[in-house]
UniProtKB/TrEMBL annotation:
Catalysed reaction, written as an equation: Endonucleolytic cleavage of DNA to give random double-stranded fragments with terminal 5'-phosphates, ATP is simultaneously hydrolyzed
Protein name: type I site-specific deoxyribonuclease
CDD domains found in the cross-reference section: HsdR_N
Organism: Methyloprofundus sedimenti
Keywords, in A-Z order: ATP-binding, Coiled coil, DNA-binding, Endonuclease, Hydrolase, Nuclease, Nucleotide-binding, Restriction system
């Protein structure tokens, strides 16, 4: 039986159908890709324009977007942006690289060049058109093979926006537990081809019926079900619901653009709570009365702190405790997304 007709392949095909309905271009790359010659700087040849299979950015579409969104700049400026998005710092953890590249994708990639008069110019190049989502290139690639330093890996589907691998799909057969899909990402892809996750915004796990979404830094328990496309819909866990709730072009870019803002808001709440707790943990009631945050977040903070000991935390434990409370609150937080999230 060929892969396309296996259980895993049928789940992929179901995802492809929904993505195409949402306006994505879907390519099947395995054994069909073909590569572009090294001297083809515009990457016009081959299915995806890759020069080799270690490349994780689709430079053909990235260059086109950079030129469209930042017109009339020298070619060196565009190439700087590509190199910066493509670059890896060996001693940096994946989470730190992901955070840095998220900043570039949302706020712009810093480049410098000399203008026609020889004057040094510095600019932030936009990569994604957040104002008009439909003007971006949304391209999902099935069976996207990546050559790592030691092993070759083939993710099920990678969702590219303007050539940036923004969404990573790990899809399994119906009988497979999603924890297995998560472990594949943690143990296989993060270890062997971490480059594919450096610009990642969201990771989607599904076996066709159960489906969850998280980020590259999320532990499994913080991968969330997405039960509703709209707030008034009846709750239903399915791959179809999750894809329509997250991969609609406008919704995806809105989620991605505002991810850091929402995380920062919740993290600020958690940090403030822990700092006050360090000095005097039992005075939560006065903090609860603050109007700076929603009542729902206050309740979740209170729940997170309920069973903590009354003694002050040592300084070296404060960061870990702050992260623990933050993760607990964020997993329950519904600001902006309303009832789309449900906690595992």
């Amino acid at each position: 039986m060929s892969y396309e007709y296996s259980e895993d392949g049928l789940v992929e095909a179901a995802a492809q159908e929904v993505l195409e309905d949402l306006g994505w271009i879907v390519e099947y790359a395995w054994a069909r890709e073909g590569l572009s010659p090294v001297d083809d700087k515009l990457r016009k040849k081959g299915l995806l324009g890759r020069i080799n299979k270690s490349e994780v950015l689709l430079v053909r579409y990235l260059l086109a977007a950079l030129q469209e969104l930042n017109p009339n700049l020298p070619a060196t400026a565009y190439q700087q942006a590509v190199d910066l998005l493509n670059g890896t710092i060996a001693d940096k953890h994946l989470a730190a690289i992901n955070k840095e590249k998220y900043h570039y994708l949302v706020n712009g990639v810093p480049v410098s060049f000399q203008d026609e008069k020889g004057v040094l110019q510095k600019k932030l190049l936009q990569v994604i058109n957040f104002a008009e989502p439909v003007k971006n290139d949304f391209r999902a690639v099935r069976q996207f093979e990546v050559v790592g330093k030691l092993y070759n890996r083939r993710p099920d589907i990678v969702g590219f926006v303007n050539g940036i691998p923004l969404v990573f799909f790990e899809l399994k057969a119906h009988h497979t537990d999603l924890r297995h899909a998560f472990d594949d990402i943690l143990c296989t892809y993060k270890a062997d081809i971490p480059e594919i996750l450096q610009c990642n915004g969201f990771i989607i796990l599904s076996n066709g019926t159960d489906a969850r979404v998280g980020t590259v830094t999320s532990p499994y328990k913080f991968f969330l079900e997405w039960k509703r496309i709209n707030e008034d819909d009846a709750g239903l866990v399915s791959l179809d619901t999750l894809l329509r709730g997250t991969c609609d072009k406008t919704r995806l870019l809105d989620l991605f653009e505002n991810l850091a803002k929402e995380e920062a808001e919740v993290k600020k709440v958690a940090k403030k709570t822990l700092e006050s707790l360090k000095a005097e943990k039992l005075k939560i009631d006065r903090w609860r009365e603050s109007e700076q945050v929603s009542s729902q977040v206050k309740v979740m903070i209170s729940d997170a702190l309920e069973y903590l000991p009354p003694e002050p935390y040592p300084d070296d434990e404060l960061a870990d405790m702050s992260l623990a409370v933050y993760q607990h609150v964020y997993s329950h937080y519904q600001g902006g997304g309303a009832s789309s999230y449900d906690v595992i």
